[in-house]
Design goal:
Rossmann fold; 3 domains; single chain; alpha/beta; 20 helices; Serine Threonine Protein Phosphatase 5, Tetratricopeptide repeat; DNA Cyclobutane Dipyrimidine Photolyase, subunit A, domain 3; 6 strands
Length: 504
C-alpha cells in the first residue's frame, strides 16, 4: 500500500463517510454521538465535531448514551461506563459544549432518540469501531440519519485503513506497523480539541426530546443507578472506578512507578507489574495516543529516534528504554493486531476463523481421552481440582481482570478440560465477556483465540488434546513464578461468594 501524501490524506484514512450529504448549515447544532471514545481529550472524533461546529458557527452537542439491551449487560459493565459518564459530565461542563447523557431505563426506551437528535443536527459525527455490536449499530444508524454522517476511527496509532487486512501473526503485523506508522506521527489528535476554539452555546435541547428521553440524573457511585435498572446483578461492580479521570490517574501511576520494570515484572502474579489500562482503553476512557504521548514524554522521545528501517522485532525499533519498548509492543502491536483483525474479518469471533493448521490439529485430537472434564457452571464457580486456575477465575469474578500470564493459562486449561475445542471457545467467550471489565473487546478476542492458535504457530512435541497448539500447565507456571500468595488472596471466593449454581 502506498503512503498518503500529506497530513490531510493521513487524517482522511480515519474518516468514514456514512451519509455523503452536505452539512445542513441551517440546523441547530453539530452532534457528536460518543460511544467508543468516551473522553474529552485525544479524540479524533471529538476533534472532527469541533471542527464542523467552528466552521458552521454552531453549538456542539455531545451525546453519550448507554443502552441496556446488549448481550452480557450487567451491573459491572454498566457501573464502569456510568463512572465515565459521571466524570464526563464534570469535564465537559468546563468546555463550550452541551453534554447530554442518556441512560436507557429499559430495553428499547431509547429507540428513536438518535434520529430525533439528527433531525436537528447539521452534521452527525460518531465513533468508528470494529468492536462488539458497533458495526451493526453504525450501519443501522446510517439508514436513519438524513444529514451528513461521518464516523471517525480513533482506535489505534495506525488507522484501520492504513493496513487493512487480517494479519495471521503478530510478527507480520509488527512489520507492517513499522512500515506504515511513521508518517502518522504528523497526524495526531489534539490533547484538547477545544484549545483556542470559541463556539456558540446551546441554551437547551428541545423540550420534545427531553420530555421523552430525560437526561440521566445522578450518575455517581453513591447513587448506584445500576441497581435500579433491569440488569444482571449477579455480576456486581468492581472496586476499580471507570472514567477518563480514573484512567488518567492509573496511566500516570503506571508510567511513574511501574514502566521501568515492565518487561521483568508484568508476568509475575504477585507484583504490580502490569499497566491495568485495558478496561480504560476498551471503553475509550483513555486513548492509545494519550497513553503513547505520556510514555514518549517520560522517555524524552521524538520520532527521529525510530529505527531507520522496519525490523519486525519486539525491541529496538522505537528507540526507547527496555520497559517502554516492552509496553509499547503490548499497547500498539498486540492491541492493534486484534483491532485490525476484527476490522478485516467479519467472522473473527467464530471457530472457523482459526488458522487452518490449528483447526487441523484440533480435529486430529478431537477424540483424545479427557480425564478431567468440567461444565460451564463449574468453570464459572471456580470448581476445578486446580487451585491456581480457581484463583485466576476468582480474580476474574471479583476484580474483573485476570493477571497477564495467568490469563493465558486460564484459557489453555479450559481447552484441556472442555469436551471439545468448540465448547472451550464458547466457555472462554462467555466467562470473559460476562465478567471481565474489558470483555467484548477485539483485544480480548485476540487473547481467547490465541489460546486456540490464532496469531501463533504450530508447536512441538505434539500432545494429547492440544495437538500442535501451544501447551501450558499450572506446574510449569509454579516453576517460573511465585504463585502461592496469589492463590491465597483469591481462595476466599472458592466456596460461597459470588456462587452461580444455575448460571444461564
Amino acid at each position: 500500500m502506498s503512503q498518503p501524501d500529506d497530513v490531510d490524506d493521513l487524517l482522511a484514512l480515519r474518516i468514514h463517510v456514512r451519509n455523503d450529504r452536505p452539512p445542513a448549515a441551517d440546523r441547530a447544532f453539530v452532534l457528536y454521538w460518543m460511544t467508543a471514545a468516551r473522553r474529552p481529550t485525544h479524540s479524533f472524533a471529538l476533534q472532527r465535531a469541533v471542527f464542523y461546529a467552528a466552521e458552521l458557527d454552531l453549538p456542539l452537542v455531545v451525546f453519550e448514551p448507554l443502552r441496556i439491551g446488549y448481550r452480557w449487560a450487567n451491573a459491572r459493565h454498566h457501573r464502569f461506563i456510568l463512572d465515565g459518564m459521571h466524570a464526563n459530565r464534570r469535564l465537559f461542563a468546563e468546555r463550550p459544549v452541551s453534554y447530554y447523557a442518556y441512560v436507557e431505563p429499559e430495553d428499547g426506551a431509547g429507540r428513536g432518540l438518535l434520529a430525533a437528535l439528527a433531525e436537528r443536527a447539521a452534521v452527525v459525527i460518531g465513533d468508528e469501531s470494529p468492536m462488539f455490536f458497533y458495526p451493526r449499530m453504525l450501519a443501522a444508524a446510517a439508514k436513519q440519519i438524513e444529514t451528513r454522517f461521518e464516523t471517525i476511527d480513533g482506535n489505534g496509532l495506525l488507522p484501520l485503513e492504513a493496513a487493512p487486512r487480517a494479519y495471521p501473526r503478530a510478527h507480520s503485523f509488527r512489520r507492517a506497523l513499522h512500515k506504515h506508522l511513521p508518517p502518522h506521527f504528523d497526524a495526531w489528535p489534539a490533547a484538547d480539541p477545544f484549545d483556542g476554539v470559541e463556539l456558540p452555546r446551546l441554551d437547551r435541547l428541545p423540550d420534545a426530546i427531553l420530555e421523552r428521553w430525560p437526561a440521566a440524573g445522578d450518575l455517581s457511585r453513591e447513587a448506584a443507578l445500576e441497581r435500579h435498572l433491569p440488569l444482571d446483578n449477579s455480576v456486581p461492580p468492581v472496586a476499580t472506578v471507570g472514567g477518563p479521570i480514573a484512567g488518567a490517574e492509573r496511566m500516570t501511576h503506571f508510567i511513574e512507578h511501574v514502566l521501568d520494570d515492565y518487561g521483568q515484572n508484568r508476568n509475575h502474579p504477585t507484583r504490580d507489574g502490569s499497566s491495568r489500562l485495558s478496561p480504560y482503553l476498551h471503553y475509550g476512557h483513555v486513548g492509545a495516543h494519550q497513553v503513547f504521548d505520556a510514555v514518549a514524554e517520560r522517555e524524552g522521545w521524538t520520532p527521529e529516534k525510530l529505527a531507520p528501517q522496519p525490523t519486525g522485532k519486539r525491541e529496538g525499533w522505537w528507540g526507547m528504554s527496555p520497559g517502554a519498548e516492552s509496553f509499547l509492543d503490548e499497547l500498539v502491536t498486540w492491541r492493534e493486531v486484534g483491532y485490525q483483525y476484527a476490522h478485516a474479518a467479519d467472522e473473527y469471533k467464530t471457530f472457523d476463523s482459526l488458522p487452518d493448521w490449528a483447526k487441523t490439529t484440533l480435529a486430529e485430537h478431537r477424540g483424545d481421552p479427557r480425564p478431567d472434564l468440567y461444565t460451564r457452571v463449574q468453570f464459572e464457580n471456580a470448581e476445578t481440582h486446580d487451585a491456581l486456575w480457581n484463583a485466576a477465575q476468582n480474580q476474574l469474578r471479583r476484580d474483573g481482570i485476570i493477571h497477564n500470564y495467568l490469563r493465558m493459562l486460564w484459557g489453555k486449561k479450559i481447552l484441556h478440560w472442555a469436551q471439545t475445542p468448540e465448547e472451550a471457545l464458547s466457555i472462554m467467550i462467555e466467562l470473559n465477556n460476562r465478567w471481565a471489565i474489558d470483555g467484548r473487546d477485539p483485544n480480548s478476542y485476540s487473547g481467547i483465540f490465541w489460546v486456540l492458535g490464532r496469531f501463533d504457530r504450530a508447536w512441538g512435541p505434539e500432545r494429547p488434546i492440544f495437538g500442535k497448539i501451544r501447551y501450558m500447565t499450572s506446574k510449569s507456571t509454579r516453576s517460573k513464578y511465585k504463585v502461592d500468595p496469589y492463590i491465597e488472596e483469591y481462595a476466599d471466593l472458592e466456596r460461597g461468594q459470588l456462587r452461580l449454581d444455575d448460571a444461564p
